[in-house]
Amino acid sequence: MVCPCQKGRSLILPMTRYKILVEYEGTPFVGWQFQTNGISVQGVLEEAILNFSQERVRVEGAGRTDAGVHAHGQVAHFDLLKAFTSHKVQEALNFYLRLHPVVVLACEIVEDCFHARFSAIRRSYRYIILNRQSPPALVKNRVWWIPKPLNLGAMEHAAQYFVGQHDFTTFRATGCQASSPVKTLDRFDVQRYEDQIWFDVEARSFLHHQVRNMVGSLKWVGEGKWQSETIVQALEQKSRIAGGPTAPPEGLYFLKVIY
Amino acid sequence: MVCPCQKGRSLILPMTRYKILVEYEGTPFVGWQFQTNGISVQGVLEEAILNFSQERVRVEGAGRTDAGVHAHGQVAHFDLLKAFTSHKVQEALNFYLRLHPVVVLACEIVEDCFHARFSAIRRSYRYIILNRQSPPALVKNRVWWIPKPLNLGAMEHAAQYFVGQHDFTTFRATGCQASSPVKTLDRFDVQRYEDQIWFDVEARSFLHHQVRNMVGSLKWVGEGKWQSETIVQALEQKSRIAGGPTAPPEGLYFLKVIY
């Protein structure tokens, strides 16, 4: 589809760009991104596309997720020389993906200037803690299990210190490649659902490990190891060692991308 | 604990009876009940009890679940000659169960006349259909996937014909051992939660495959293959061949037992 902004690649080659909405269980993967040391979500998607279209393409995702991190609504795009209906692409991908815990929930043909990563204006993640004495059976590998009761009110209060524009150096992975540590958080809700605590966070974009590092510190607040206000001091320190632990990947879900 | 009704076994042997609340993922099991052809939930529980107490006991469950059926709140009991605190029993069981998707959510010492199966006055089950075009990734093996849209209103209406006292011959497994096919359903709610449909059903007790057979017929109603009223005729026929298909086990959850 030729884009109205005239920046599209279709001016050079007659390609069709497909946008897909993807759900996956992160447990068996080395992460979203292709790596040589194991299977990746990107890799199995590219393999499935090759199998049905005979075209070897690069699939671009809205966000890279780490090994073990899940997605309810990752978004990705890719280009094909042959033109298929979006329905056909979705059906064929799900057929070739059937041995992996990855499914395409929706597919549409988009303008050539659409980019899963660069066109995104908002991303949301959910982190789930299972807060009960007994370990998980039905949600194994899908939550962070914390047996001791956490103080929900304190965590909810503390989470609000993250909202707004801040230098998140304390809460980014030391190897994070982003050019600036300044990000703007639009929302950080903490709610209990039965024996789970859900941390819902929204921003235009996030630093590497930012959600997991924020949740790790909030867990310290919930345990009483930190006061809610310690978050403010930790942000001010601008140093990863001033932050709490990195929450494990299995509790994290990439929920939604808005364009 | 000696029971006030004086029917307890402790009059003969000084045993302690433990009641446990159990969560499990049914996928890897041949079912609740011990069988020689694979591992059972009952079997791994008995093994865990043997490992920590050195006593070989029989664990009695409130209800037998088939292979692949899950539980949020199965209840069981067993007797030990040695006396442990309930907390110790729960901790030790969860330690020895750690390689299986089975956990003890609660444990208490009960009177000797308590029986997980015979003392139960109400049981509840949930059946989950994933009703969306794409197969499940995050809830694989935990739902029945139906890609075509089902008519929720028609299923909800039809489900009410099951409520009350009926002869459920049409909806019991042909090999069902129960002495009478007459059961009383207290509740049958059908609700949509995003892309899932939850069937919540409550009764004192159920026949073998009763929930799965009722849900299989409701699916036919949802597809328009049956009218809601066809349920009434099917009940009247009192023959399994007058009923719809048996819904697969992976969508079924044993939720709760009331004593």
TrEMBL record, chains A, B:
Record-level GO BP terms: tRNA pseudouridine synthesis
Catalysed reaction, written as an equation: uridine(38/39/40) in tRNA = pseudouridine(38/39/40) in tRNA
Residues the entry annotates as binding substrate: Y125
EC number: 5.4.99.12
Superkingdom of the organism of origin: Bacteria
Keyword terms: Isomerase, tRNA processing
NCBIfam families: hisT_truA
Protein name per Swiss-Prot or TrEMBL: tRNA pseudouridine synthase A
